[in-house]
Each structure stands twice: as C-alpha cells, then as structure tokens.
Design goal:
alpha/beta; 4-stranded antiparallel β-sheet; single chain
Length: about 450
C-alpha cells in the first residue's frame, strides 16, 4: 500500500543490497545492536531476516521508490493478549521525521489499532487479506472465532506471504511432507525445486516429438504428438510410490504411450508399481522403460521397474530398452548399456544421440534414457497410423519389427565378444518402417 509519503512493498531477496545498507551504516550500528555479522553477505543476511520476521515489508519514500529506506515487520504474536509487535528500522537520515508513523497511518502520539486498518489502501489481494487477518488479531473474541482459529489463520497467511510461490497458490505449501511408505498419501512434493537442469527431460521430449522438416535442428520420431512432462523422480531418492503415482497420473490424464527414462536397483514396494503397470494395461497404455546404464546383465541383477510381477507373471504392456550405437559393427551394443536375454526386450540408438537442449540449444548425449524415448516415439508413430491398436499389440509390433542381428559384438562392461541376439529378447534394434509394416497386418483391439 502507499500514502502521500511512503510506499510499502514486500521484501524479497532481489532487494538484498539496498536492504543490507540500512543495518550496515555506522550510525545505525552505533545506536543499536545490529544483527549483521562482519562476514555476512547481503543476500544471506536478507534471507535470515525474512525467515525470522515471518513477513516483512520494505519502506520506500515516494520521491525515490527504488531505494529502500527502512522496513516494517511483524515480530511477535502474543496469544494471551491478542496483540502484535510491529517493529521497524530506518536509515539514520530519516530518523525523527515520523516516517514509521506515516507508514502505519498513525497520528503523532497515537498507537496502531484495528480502526487504522481501514486507512490502509486495498490495492491488491494480499493487502485485503492482510487487513482481514490483522482484524482478527485486534477484534474481541466471540463465540464464532476462537484464539486457536485466529492463530491458525494468521500462521497460514504469514507462511503464504513469506513463500516464493505465487501467494494465490496458498494451498501449495513450501514443502509438503511425504511418507514414502504410504501409497494413499498423494499430495506431496516441493514447489521450491527450481529445475535448473532441464536438459534431460528436454532432450527426451525432443527425440520423441521435435518438429520435423522445418530446416532447423533435429527431427523428432513422431512430431504429431502431445508431450505430458512429469517429474516422477525428484532430486533425491526414487521411491516406488513416486513411480506408481506418476504412471497412474499419466494414464488418468490421457497418455497412450509413457516413456520412463529412470530406474533403480531396489524396489521395496514393488507391488505398488506392479499394480500401476496393470492399471496402465487395463487402460491400454504402453510403457517404455530405459534398461539402465550399468553394463550389467539384468537377468541376473534386475533393474526396476520391470515387466516381471511379484507372482512371476509378466506384463504385456511394458518394453525395456537397451542402448545401441550407430554402426553395425562390434561396438553396436553401447559399452554402458544394461542387457538381458529375458528382461531387455530391444535395443535402440543411445550413443551420441543429438537432441534439443534448454535455452534453444542442441546437445549430444549417451544413455538408455535416450534409447527409451526413441522407442516410445516409434510406438507413438505407429499409433498415429493405426490408432485402434491396443497396448499389447503395440508391444508386439515393436518387438516383431526388430529383426535379429546375427553379429558378433563386444558385451557391455567386458572385452568378451558375444552374438548380439543374446543381449535382448528380440536380438534386434527398433525399426520404424518395419513397425509400420507389421502394424498394417493387424486388426486393432484397443478397448478405449
């Protein structure tokens, strides 16, 4: 809000330098116990003040609104007496000029009361809610509102004011707690993740659906597709719960093919993921899974998720993909790729694969994370031409069109040469043209 003298704006970290200057002046330090430490950087100091004060407004003089001359903050809530302490600091050159009184719309010698709230200009939603919550603080208790309710609403409001997330997203807390052992708890996550490195997901999306024939960059496998980006694995542990809920979310929101460029070696709640895979199968959704980059035999050391359920049966809607190189020679199998005659279905290009990157750039990378979306792109391409094919039929098409390659290759992670057909169920590499030919011979069985 503002009046004829001052303007109040919420303090943010972008104001650090100007705000720091208030407390670092010699005059201020001489008269008050400054909270600044000698070796503290402005941004860290500002961060601490914001966290300590719950919410804090910067005071700016109307004649120079770009400069912070002080602050006004709620420091303390007295439940018993239903009062708040409003504290503030000013640059020394503004001392004794009544700036704080003017800031709070007070007359000389007057204390701030509930009635003063009516003097604050309601210029936006935040200030209207501020007036409401301060009104609760100052009003007498009645049967309709208890002290507990008042404090709860105040704390929720102050948390919102001090959150980096848009204040209108008040139901989204800073970090919502998660119990990874409770599949029923789904409202969790962190709105503070900055996703600074978007290269992986962007590259995956580009391989699937980058615009074709535009004379720029790369061509996606199937450019007539919609991409639904889901960050199933946060910056940290990959929980079974995250994977299961991500699969169900994709299915419930219309996905027909789901690429899964992630994996792990343990699955303590595998049944949750198995049930999600079965749920996808029931909705005719095909899942494409990166086999992993540990040059291991996943028949001996399984990677998760996979298509083998706890009861020993297998899914008919999940494809596991290994990474291949560009040339049909002894180095066809990527040195890092996982393999397995039983648990890897097919190989796809995953060595020196070029795709789009963040900031409108391009990048070349390796990994089964990129072989998987290429396979998913082929599946989407087939579905564009033959939309009545079921998830089971799509899997059959991908596998049947990957012709066995009778070729001696170096087994990943060793110097031993083996037949390429021993490294996967099909013994071949995905082939879009052949996939379309195979699909053309089938009668669609899609249920949905």
């Amino acid at each position: 809000f503002s009046n004829e003298v001052v303007i109040l704006k919420k303090l943010t970290l972008s104001n650090s330098e100007s705000f720091y200057n208030i407390y670092s002046t010699k005059e201020f330090d001489k008269n008050f116990e400054s909270p600044i430490l000698a070796d503290e950087e402005p941004i860290e100091f500002t961060r601490k003040i914001i966290e300590k004060c719950n919410f804090i407004w910067s005071i700016r003089h109307r004649n120079s609104p770009e400069k912070i001359i002080g602050d006004c903050a709620l420091h303390h809530w007295d439940k018993e007496n239903k009062t708040i302490e409003i504290g503030g600091s000013l640059l020394p050159e503004y001392w004794g000029k009544g700036i704080m009184k003017k800031t709070l719309n007070l007359k000389a010698g007057q204390s701030f009361t509930k009635n003063d709230l009516n003097k604050v200009e309601d210029t936006n939603d935040t200030l209207k809610q501020s007036k409401y919550i301060w009104g609760l603080i100052f009003q007498d208790a009645d049967n309709a509102k208890t002290d507990t309710k008042t404090i709860t609403e105040l704390n929720e409001y102050l948390t919102k004011l001090n959150n980096d997330v848009n204040p209108d997203l008040d139901s989204r807390k800073r970090v919502v707690g998660d119990n990874p052992n409770d599949i029923s708890n789904k409202t969790y996550g962190s709105n503070q993740l900055k996703f600074e490195d978007a290269s992986h997901g962007t590259g995956v999306a580009g391989l699937i659906g980058a615009v074709r024939n535009n004379g720029y960059g790369i061509d996606g496998i199937a450019d007539n597709v919609k991409i639904m980006p889901i960050k199933a694995v946060p910056n940290g542990d990959e929980y079974d719960k995250d994977i299961a809920n991500a699969i169900r979310y994709a299915v419930d929101n219309g996905a027909k093919v789901v690429n899964m460029s992630f994996g792990k070696k343990l699955s303590p709640h595998k049944k949750w993921v198995d049930d999600a895979i079965k749920y996808a199968a029931d909705k005719d959704v095909l899942l494409i899974q990166a086999s992993g980059n540990d040059n291991q035999d996943v028949d001996a050391k399984p990677e998760f998720p996979n298509d083998t359920f706890l009861d020993g049966t297998t899914s008919n809607n999940l494809i596991s993909v290994g990474a291949s190189a560009s040339l049909k020679d002894e180095n066809l199998a990527a040195t890092f790729s996982n393999y397995g005659k039983k648990n890897v279905d097919v190989f796809a290009p995953g060595v020196k694969v070029t795709s789009i990157d963040k900031d409108a750039e391009f990048n070349t990378a390796d990994g089964t994370s990129f072989a998987s979306p290429i396979t998913a792109g082929v599946a989407a391409l087939v579905l564009e031409y033959y939309p009545t094919l079921s998830a089971r039929q799509l899997k059959e098409v991908i596998l049947a069109s990957a012709k066995p390659l009778q070729l001696q290759v170096i087994k990943p992670g060793s110097k031993e040469k083996v037949d390429f057909t021993t490294l996967s169920k099909t013994g071949g590499v995905v082939n879009a043209l052949e996939a379309l030919k195979v699909a053309s011979t089938m009668k669609g069985e899609r249920k949905r």
